[in-house]
């Protein structure tokens, strides 16, 4: 499920897909979702070109890679963390345990306590919110924190628009500045 740097795909699609799977799972009675956000240390600097080339040939490039990533990452439980670590070791990818966090989404009336999650013998911290790509996701799956963040940044950018107007920038240039710097930011991830 590669979303970045692909035609007709965006971070919005990744967030929407993730939320869809979480909410679909949570529709079943007595369920919860535990989300592990993993960060790789210098992932692009540790790629072994020969290994990558052979994998790309085996997987027929773009569609096959996406399908492989999807089948590898989807439907995994916490017991799968060890397999993720082994896979990363075999493919020269180092997990950044300091930036990896877990978020538990649990709407059950009486949630049971979860065992702590470890990654590469380090305890993974549990968070209530996490900035996933460009969206702040909260464990209650509500958008107040993200909306407040977007509004604050938009207000900061409006300051520059007022300065430009004060210094006599033509109306058309003000409109272009607004569209490029403010409106584009307000509309990013609007589908989510």
Distance from first to last alpha carbon = 17 Å
Helix content: 40-55%
Oligomer: single chain
Biggest β-sheet: strands ordered side by side in the sheet: 1-4-7
Shape: globular
Topology:
Elements: H1 11-26, E1 33-37, E2 40-41, H2 49-58, H3 62-73, H4 81-90, E3 94-95, E4 101-105, E5 118-119, E6 122-123, E7 125-126, E8 129-132, E9 135-138, H5 144-166, H6 171-187
Parallel strand pairs: 4-7
Antiparallel strand pairs: 1-4, 2-3, 5-6, 8-9
What attributes does this structure have?
about 190 residues; alpha+beta; 2 domains; 3-stranded mixed beta sheet; two-stranded antiparallel ribbon; 9 strands; about 45% helix; about 15% strand; globular
Describe, in plain words, how this protein is organized in 3D:
This protein has 192 residues and is an alpha+beta fold. The protein folds into two domains: 132 residues, no CATH class; 40 residues. Helices cover 46% and strands 15% of the residues. Strands 1-4-7 form a three-stranded mixed sheet. Strands 2-3 form a two-stranded antiparallel sheet. Strands 5-6 form a two-stranded antiparallel sheet. Strand 8 and strand 9 form a beta hairpin. Helix 5 packs antiparallel against helix 6. The two termini are 17 Å apart.
Quick recap:
With 192 residues, the chain is α+β, with helices and mostly antiparallel strands. The chain has helices at 11-26, 49-58, 62-73, 81-90, 144-166, 171-187, and strands at 33-37, 40-41, 94-95, 101-105, 118-119, 122-123, 125-126, 129-132, 135-138.
